[in-house]
Design brief:
mainly alpha; 2 domains; 0% strand; globular; disordered N terminus
């Protein structure tokens, strides 16, 4: 294979982008090459999956890890979740967030630590992708209701937070010295391959069936039928425009998802509905 660290013509660059992305998928989409969850995550999962766990058990696990404790404290004191008083202890933070939200925050922080960008041109995109996930999670939790077929607020937050896990390894995998051409073009190419990888990562990190199905479908516009992933597609586009994540904005995907929502939910303008009902949460995020 010819060296990739020299300047390439546009056709060659396009070929390289596709080749790098496909090779990354093949290399990374195995349980052996994807990093396993850290011990604090596995311990937290074990506690939550037990039948008789208490919040005190969760507090013990979170307090044993400095990064996890800091993450949970910060999450409990955000404008979106903070009450009248500031949380000053891990115990109070876990109580405010609840078991599932605590788990989600710890796992999300652990993923960010596990997948660090190697290519400087992709660092900004990965940072925006993390921010986008948090925005989508916040929006979906706020608008969750029977009317849109997503009643459980905790589940809505979880699938929003991890909907794009397939993008994470691809944005962190490109070697630093490789000429990837345009970072935004690489992002678009990676998005076409992110669904399968997202499914693998969702299983490896024990993210649950709802996240697995969402990760498999929400970045794949051609998926037939309707499910929570359709809502995630729409929320993703609303939030991408809001935070200025231009590479993630896809008018064609938004149009198709909006039409699907009209048929499945009998809602004429779900985008406006989401923006109206989620405005307060997004402003606080």
């Amino acid at each position: 294979m010819r060296p990739l660290n020299r300047r390439l013509s546009d056709p060659t660059a396009a070929f390289v982008i596709e080749t790098i992305t496909q090779e990354s998928v093949i290399r990374l989409a195995t349980q052996q090459s994807l990093p396993a969850p850290p011990q604090v995550v596995m311990r937290l999962l074990k506690v939550i999956q037990s039948e008789d766990f208490s919040l005190a058990d969760i507090v013990d696990v979170v307090e044993s890890d400095v990064s996890a404790a800091a993450t949970v404290m910060a999450a409990a004191n955000t404008a979106a979740t903070r009450g009248v008083n500031e949380v000053t202890s891990v115990r109070d933070a876990v109580t405010r967030l609840g078991a599932q939200a605590t788990r989600d925050r710890v796992m999300h922080q652990a993923m960010q630590a596990a997948f660090q960008p190697r290519h400087p041109a992709l660092a900004g995109l990965l940072s925006k992708e993390w921010a986008l996930a948090a925005q989508v999670a916040t929006l979906l939790r706020q608008v969750s209701c029977a009317e849109i077929g997503l009643e459980d607020a905790d589940t809505a937050f979880t699938i929003g937070l991890f909907h794009n896990v397939g993008m994470v390894p691809l944005l962190s995998a490109a070697p630093a010295l490789v000429n990837i051409g345009s970072a935004s073009d690489y992002y678009v190419a990676a998005r076409h391959h992110a669904s399968a990888l997202g499914g693998v990562l969702a299983k490896r990190w024990h993210l649950g069936t709802a996240v697995y199905e969402t990760a498999l479908n929400c970045l794949r516009p051609a998926t037939a039928g309707w499910g929570a992933w359709g809502l995630v597609r729409i929320a993703r586009q609303v939030c991408a425009q809001r935070i200025g994540h231009g590479a993630a904005v896809d008018e064609q995907t938004l149009s198709a998802a909006t039409l699907a929502a009209q048929e499945a939910l009998q809602m004429t303008d779900i985008v406006a509905w989401m923006q109206e009902h989620g405005a307060e949460a997004l402003s606080a995020a």
